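tmp note - Peptidase S9 prolyl oligopeptidase active site domain protein
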Amino acid sequence: MNGIVASDYTDLAHAEEPRLSPDGDRVAFVRRTPDDDDSYTATAFVVPVGGDEPTQFTARDGVDSQPRWHPDGSRLAFVSTRGEGDRQQLWVVPTDGGEARRLTSVVGGIGSLEWSPDGSRLCFTQRVTAADREAERDLAVHPDYDPDEPDPRVIDRPIYRADTEYFDGRRSHVYVLDLEAALSGGPSPSDGDEGEGGDAITRLTDGDRDYIAPTWGDDETVYYASKVGEEPDDSLRYELFAHDHETDDREAFTETSGWLGPDSLEATAADRVAFEYTPEERASMRQTEIRIHDRSDGTETTPTAPLDRTIGHRCSFTWAPEGDDLYFTTPDEGSRVLWSVPGDAEAEPRRIYGEGATVEDFHVGRDAVALVQSEWDHPGDVFVTTRGGNEPHRLSRVNRDYLAERAVRQPEEVWFESEDGTEIQGWVLTPPEFDADASPGETYPLLVEIHGGPHAHWTTAGTMWHEFQTLAARGYVVFWCNPRGSTGYGEDHATAIERDWGEVTLTDVLAGVDAVREREYVDDDEIFVTGGSFGGFMTAWAVGNTDRFTAAVSQRGVYDLTGFYGSTDAFHLLEGDFDTTPWEEPEFLWEQSPVAHVPDVDTPTLLMHSDRDYRTPANTAELFYLGLKKHGVDTRLVRYPREGHELSRSGEPAHVVDRIERIARWFDGYSDHREAPPALERDRDGGLSASSGAADDAPAATDD
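out:
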């Protein structure tokens, strides 16, 4: 059996977006795979619920997403970039055979796609400028249209960029497409003349506001949300609207607060609207609930209130088809699990599925639930279970051939006490060849991983599966945990880091290190640490506040809280977690920043950052890096062009591989278990896939 290596990432397939057919017999899903060093291919597949292998349903051309069954099962709508460069368009394909048909040629792409209950229309969003709306390029545009980049870029909004893009005047608006009109007059795969296809699309919203999360109630009603306040970018409050498509009338019927995303509203034909709610005061520290507004009588209930878990961090919710029960996921003690609750809140939420697994996404059908879940022994596949969570059945094995030839080690769950007696959950992953009985006295270096967030959680699977298994296969004992601040253990656990990200979290992490280093096979003279985002903050905080670590790699971190506040789209995180701003307590925020402790750093520290990371912009990494250089610390800064904050999860395949290889190479250079000089003494790219064509994946590296 081969060990898992960083370059294996290009061989891994990812299952995403499961959707049950209306008759419950089939599940559509997206299979995403690296296409080359720079891009991915994503294709829709369909698998029978009763068994048999998944079959490819759309052409392997571009990136497909958002597969959505027509309510009668006769068609599958999906979004694709095929033939359009990076611009997403709406397509439909008959489910009984036939060619896919492109229905849109719009300038802003397609998001939040959903069929009306009767299947006559689809609603969606796109991000467009006022000029686009005036010229009706949001209704139809020639595929060759290429907007000019602003020069200069004039900024008026407090939040003017996110993900990897500047907004440049683009706002999210809600649209409805009439299916029959689009089929009779819309663009076909070979045409795309200026203006053709636009008559089938109606814009429901307009103006200098963002409208998000559209969802159908009955056949004529679309619900959506928009921020309110004197400065919406600085607001956490949203109005919820009901829009009558026939009359074009809309009504604002309630408000909510928090961080709403593209799937934060779900409605029934009986006028019940479920939506996310997070208390506005100190919102970043609070748990997200689901509220239900009944438009027939104006009442609101919070069916998730009895549950001390948050509907946040990659979680989702939806109504069952009949509109009586609500299904949702939450983090829960090292798993991401599925719950159900009656919409009238007459019973408490019931956990029905997912213990020991990570439910990445799910869809509720008439009699079953389709899921994509990952576990310790695979990075993700399609499963189906009953509505009650019984009789789970695996429908896909998208990495069967790959896993058949790889040694995958099962992590060991550990619980330990922190300094104040708090019970913390963690995991230990040993190298595949580890056998205490066969090799008594053999030791391995310990590698500590710290998660981001800070209000997130880790499991034994999910997006870190490949990285953890790679580092273990390289000869490290890998340890990770969910310290205070993490979700999945109740609100008190998550809020324990209020105004103190560094010391509280480090106390918990070091308590875990102490518990693991007592094991005979752990070399307690060699302990390494890494993490990304908040984990990058904590890695930098650790090397400035303890000398316990032999070397460190800090990724996409926050190093100066004031600089972060002024450059991120997530400044409310600082206001909520620290209850202050740079103008109120500048000295306090400085002391809470890793850069303040640079004079105390001796640990060799590699910094990694993305050039287009607009969540944790690179300016604070540059400050920390310069500080380390000025104080004579072994350091290096690696910058990834074109990448954003999601590099480790969805970056260009070559960059994903390079990142893991550089982490391992940095640690190898400071380990007595390796025959490798420090990375600073080697060629900058020596032994890495990007430069040599073959990764330096052997446990014992050699000098270049």
